[in-house]
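In the design runs reported in the main text, the only information available to the sequence generator was the tokenized backbone. The following block is the verbatim input for one such run; it is reproduced so that readers can re-run the procedure and compare outputs position by position.
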């Protein structure tokens, strides 16, 4: 596990701990974190939980990788990402979410930065992330821009009339030695790729 000193919402110092292994209790924590934003439907919450369940069932063969951030003994945020089938070195960032009580503590930035390091380690070169064009998602889009992601394309009315899909991309520095990965599984791409971030 990787650790990073932090100051909690009450001002008490804590240590942010990162782990990649997925545990059965993570399904409950993912649901709690995603619901805390108040942005997502129960259908979207179900999809987020299902991805962790698939990883628990199939292991790395599921095509999903996770990174969890723990603070004060509990999970406060996570990412879910994986190689895009039929590409040489492209990855999708499916979910990045931080519990609403722990926003503005840079947990999201640290999760994203460490996820990028993991992707680079496994040979990833381009990371794609998708989000909504609605005004309520403006902070999300600003977050990606601030983290070095460039707007690649906008698909108007993709999710619903007036709700387009905005796709961002970040080209990674390919300096880390690649590790062979398995990208053979079929994924729930359309539902998972709302790419949900709250930090």
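Verbatim output:
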């Amino acid at each position: 596990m990787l650790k990073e000193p932090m100051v909690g919402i009450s001002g008490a110092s804590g240590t942010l701990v990162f782990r990649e292994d997925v545990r059965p209790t993570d399904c409950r924590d993912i649901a709690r974190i995603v619901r805390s934003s108040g942005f997502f439907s129960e259908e979207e919450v179900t999809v987020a939980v299902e991805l962790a369940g698939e990883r628990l069932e199939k292991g790395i063969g599921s095509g999903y990788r996770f990174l969890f951030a723990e603070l004060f003994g509990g999970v406060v945020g996570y990412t879910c990402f994986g190689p895009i089938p039929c590409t040489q070195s492209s990855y999708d960032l499916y979910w990045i979410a931080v519990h609403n009580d722990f926003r503005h503590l840079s947990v999201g930035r640290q999760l994203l930065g460490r996820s990028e390091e993991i992707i680079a380690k496994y040979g990833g070169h381009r990371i794609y992330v998708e989000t909504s064009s609605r005004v309520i998602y403006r902070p999300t889009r600003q977050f990606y821009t601030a983290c070095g992601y460039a707007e690649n394309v906008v698909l108007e009315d993709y999710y619903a009339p007036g709700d387009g899909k905005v796709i961002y991309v970040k080209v990674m520095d390919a300096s880390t030695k690649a590790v062979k990965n398995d990208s053979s599984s079929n994924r729930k791409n359309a539902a998972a790729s709302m790419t949900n971030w709250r930090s």
